[in-house]
Amino acid sequence: MGSVAVIRERLEGLLGVDDPEERFTDLYDRHYRNVLGYTLLRAERDVAEDVASETFIVAWRRLSDVPEAALPWLLGVARNLLAKQRDSRHRRQALVDRIVALSSQRDMETWDVAEHVIDREQALAALSALREKDVEAMVFATWYGLTPEEAAMAMGCSVRTYNVRLHRARKRLDQALRVETTFARAVPQGRPARRIA
């Protein structure tokens, strides 16, 4: 550290000046490479970079909690974030394993890619027909696996309001899927579908 920086640091300490942006920038400059190195040892590159970035987002939000010896604190945050990533991957793998376990050999033999493409297209069309808040409520619950409390916090509403939104969103999706399925069955094969909105 240069002599000017040492003098400046001492003056700021004496005067009680602590600019959060400068403190964070210094924290980032000093420790990002170490945090990234730590995460790279424990995860694939894209996950490691995301976790390292998220570590500094946490540091920015909790800047007043970051101790003077910041690196151990940052590594602890990174470690916790990596654990959450692993838990999330394990949950996804467990879901895949359950689906495979529930699929019979007959299911595998009769699996038709075309049917699944049509089902996917119908599902996407049904989802696109929903309001943004409906999709958001379902995504928080199903894709991110958030609890109602966490999803409500993310949406900025009460848990009760979130639960009502999720219930209504699921009902709307069910109705939209029925419409899409009915429409898909009504369209003759070989002719392009035209829908009047």
From TrEMBL:
Keywords: Sigma factor, Transcription, Transcription regulation
GO molecular function annotation: DNA binding; sigma factor activity
Biological-process GO terms, alphabetical: DNA-templated transcription initiation
Domain of life: Bacteria
InterPro entries from the UniProt entry: RNA_pol_sigma-70-like, RNA_pol_sigma-70_dom, RNA_pol_sigma70_r4_t2, RNA_pol_sigma_r2, RNA_pol_sigma_r3/r4-like, WH-like_DNA-bd_sf
Domain RNA polymerase sigma factor 70 region 4 type per the UniProt entry, residue ranges: 121-173
One Pfam family here: Sigma70_r4_2
NCBIfam families, sorted: sigma70-ECF (TIGR02937)
Family statement drawn from the similarity comment of this UniProt entry: Belongs to the sigma-70 factor family. ECF subfamily.
The name this protein goes by in its record: RNA polymerase sigma factor 70 region 4 type 2 domain-containing protein
Source organism phylogeny: Bacteria, Bacillati, Actinomycetota, Actinomycetes, Streptosporangiales
